């Protein structure tokens, strides 16, 4: 990926009306939406074929609560930056199955856009500040937790 | 010594001689002897040097306790107090201890002369002479029938309480299990509802979003057009509302009768137009679909029926609308047939946001939508798999 190319995005979501809306918002945030899958098998197949830079994954898909497994395979086997988008946050394991973060449904346009811009900046290698409120980062990516760990140093200054 | 030894006349005379000797040794003025004779505790002395270890002394308390006269006791072995209820193991243990010259402490069921039983707390202890040989056995007896009865009642009460406790524990276990199950089910239902509410709000926002994008493509619309768009939106949201009313209204939560929904919707919508010249026909059977398919199916049905009503009979000409719904080989087949649609109107309907919703949701449901234009009139058939559908937990 170069800076002149937009990062590509795959949407894994069982609600088609939402998927087309998310694709429109991805476009607005500077992504190129390249595909949409409604169930786990298609998601993995499309990810292999299209090799997207980024995937938004719902926990509940047409074939059941298979989104966590999809996220794990996309993130760990294919090296895709994955973010969950779900109304079922308690289904996301504590290690986030290798995902970068989580956007809770129902989302707002502005919240989702802010989250997508943050992710876009990260993929483009730009400096990212604190994540927007709509985006909850996985523990190992969360700078706030890292900051909490170095608080004693700040106190000494 | 097991056989019931009957003392001979000689034995009896020996026993009486021993008693006489004892009385001579410990005369009437001996305070210890007087105490033994007069105490309330039953006491006897036996002589193991004579055959069958006979009683050679019994005090008044012993006579009172057993009901035997003094003369009846002297010369006999104590075992005549035993009877059918006496524990053979206790008897054996007692006999063996006495044979070894040991102390005996035992509670044993004995019988009075009149045959009434009593619990005897028996203590037997050897009395040695100067050379250490066993000279006499001293025995004391206490009637512990009341204590035994109390013990028996306690055991009985204890047994009852134990059974009661076991029963209650079992009941508590069953109830706890039931409550846990109910709580688990309720929690699952709350999570399910929470998830559904979030999804539906998101879906509603998406429905509005779809209209907005259509509006942007078409450019600024007229006031009347905007009113119509808002009306269509409102009908879609109401269709979603009806799905939820039906989903959680019936005994069997989480299923949805698409046929019932379509019939009611068609009746409501025609009533709303105020037109009595549209004949509504049904050929339907119940089509129960899983909860997670209810909303998209309802939205498709909503669009098809509204399309027919808005486009087919638009210029006020009368007509008929027929709904057919049936299940076939794990598929749900839904047909809307009208005699009013012109081909141009049909094409307009397909290009509208309603047509887009039908196409998008059909993809989600893996359904096939066929448009069969007639002249006039048309038939729309939706075929979707429901038999092998995955139901959300």
Q: Based on helices, strands and strand pairing, what is the structural class of chain B?
A: alpha+beta
Number of strands of chain B: 12
Most extensive interface: A-B, 20 and 22 residues
Number of strands of chain A: 6
What is the makeup of the main sheet of chain B? Answer: 5 strands, antiparallel
The ordered H/E elements of chain A are EHEHEHEEHEHH
Could you give the distance between the termini of chain B?
82 Å
Order of helices and strands of chain B: HHEEHHHEEEHHEHEEHEEHHEE
How confident overall, as mean pLDDT of chain B? 85
Poorly predicted ranges of chain A (pLDDT <50, ≥5 residues)? 148-157
Name the overall outline of chain B: rod-shaped
Largest sheet of chain A: 6 strands, mixed
Q: Outline of this structure?
A:
The complex is a heterodimer of chains A (157) and B (393). Chain A is α/β, with parallel strands linked by helices. Chain A contains 6 helices and 6 strands, in the order βαβαβαββαβαα.
